[in-house]
Amino acid sequence: MGDRQGNKRSAIIFGARNLGRAVIETLVADGWAVAGVARSQATLDVLLVAMGAFLILFTRRRQRLGDLVAGTIVVRQPKMAQPSPVPLQIPPDADLPPLDTTLLTEEEYELMRSFLERRWQLAPAARMALGNELGNLAWSKVPGAQAYTWGPEVLLEAVLVTVRRQSLGLRGTVGG
């Protein structure tokens, strides 16, 4: 009979069954209780979770076990502060001539936005000079800007409103 059990174990382990099933059936064939295996696996699970939490809390780079084994590091991205709202003279729902702002770089857009945000704090001559310079940039890079003949600040506000609408996926904007 001992021979027969040995053959059964070999068939189970090397047969077409999965490894977990093979181990459990082998243990049952040897007279072990399945409940004991489950209990020891639950204990092992708790120990692994506790070790993982310990490693995350006490490693210098806040790495978990998998990060340590793989040699990877944890990279945290700082939360970006939301930009303060820019007071505009153009209502957000105004019917504007279409603008295509896709040729503006992010830096150029941020310059325009920053100017509009701070324009009330500038001396009148500085405000006019900077507004004209940024307006000329917009007139040269934004198709449709020639329709805005009311001055550079109106054009810059229209650029800002257009980009906001595009970011929200609203209709009535070129490319939006």
List the defining traits of the structure above:
59% helix; 7 helices; disordered C terminus; mainly alpha; 0% strand; 176 residues; 2 domains; elongated
Task: Note down, in words, how this protein is organized.
It is a single chain. This protein is mostly helical. The chain has 2 domains: 69 residues, no CATH class; 98 residues, no CATH class. It is built from 7 helices and no strands.
Q: Helix coverage percent of residues?
A: 55-70%
Order of helices and strands: HHHHHHH
Question: Which range does the strand content fall in?
Answer: under 5%
Q: Determine the N-to-C terminus distance.
A: 79 Å
The assigned structural class equals mainly alpha
What's the main sheet like? none
Tell me, what's the shape? elongated
List the helices and strands and how they pair.
Elements: H1 2-14, H2 19-29, H3 34-58, H4 65-70, H5 106-118, H6 124-141, H7 152-168
Helix pairs in contact: 1-2, 5-7, 6-7
